[in-house]
Amino acid sequence: AKNAGRNRYSYFTQDMQAAAQLRLRITRDLQMAVANQQFELHYQPIVNLHTGAIERAEALLRWRHPERGMLNPVDFIGSAEASGIILEIGDWVFRNAADQAKRWQQELGRPFQISVNQSPVQFRTGPEFFEKWMHYVEQLALAPRSIVIEITERLLLEDSGPVVERLRQFKAMGLQVALDDFGTGHSVLAHLKNFDIDYLKIDRSFVMDLAGDSGDLALCEGIIVMAHKLGLKVVAEGVETETQLNLLKAAGCDYAQGYVYAHPMPPAQMTAMTRGPARL
Ligand code: C2E
Ligand code: CA
Ligand code: CA
Ligand code: CA
Fold first, then answer.
1. Taking the model in full, what pTM does it have?
2. CB of residue 97 inside a 6 A radius of ligand 1
3. Which residues line ion ligand 4, judged by CB < 5 Å?
4. N or C: which end of the chain has fewer CB within 10 A?
């Protein structure tokens, strides 16, 4: 038994060593990726369910890795956060998204917003980063409300001092704020009234089984009623079927995003799509 225990232990450390090595390699690759501009933003339309218009798109990070091909955030965000490189990447994401918002607004001749995801790591830094963003937005002559900052519920559960400060800074800049993955955290409801948030994004896990699970439907309906009473707009994410879409419309949901409309796509493709109304 002792032997087995030792064996298990050595497997364990081998695994940990392998994981640490992989992490180190990804970190090195990430540094190269920043320097060599291997990142891209893909965009997924967010549709206003009252008007059918594509009002906004979420910017989703992709890494065109020279050997491993196109990588999704799940493959590298953890390493980027652990190594702190996420700060540089996040800076690039914001500027790139702001440029794109400006471009689309000029081409479309109407307001168009872009949502950008924020890592909690970015939120814990000082105000300097975001002051630079403010200047960037000013230089572009971009209306600050063109940018929606997406933060996760997890963040609001942390020590809220710095988080409140950062959120206040975003709002003072005129940016909008969306609370992502809503419903997956715990006891966040009580915090809702203390944070100045513009959009709630109902997590995909509640949307997925909307047609089959009357409990999920009741939850979505409840969230929408509550959000509206608090003056928030609701975005349903991960909407894949027309049935889900119709249930959400009937429940008074304001926006939807998901494969039912489109997968995330490169900007050129998104440009073509913004010209027309959404298909459904
Ligand atoms: P998220 O913010 O919840 O983004 C939504 C994810 O759901 C995206 O995955 C999107 O491709 C996927 N999705 C959209 N519609 C559907 C659908 O109908 N069905 C299904 N099954 N999935 C759908 P993606 O692009 O792999 O991004 C994963 C996560 O990585 C994001 O989750 C976000 O938390 C993070 N992320 C993405 N871009 C950035 C970034 O620029 N910075 C940071 N810090 N995190 C990012
Ligand atoms: Ca998001
Ligand atoms: Ca989400
Ligand atoms: Ca999610």
1. 0.90
2. no
3. 181
4. N
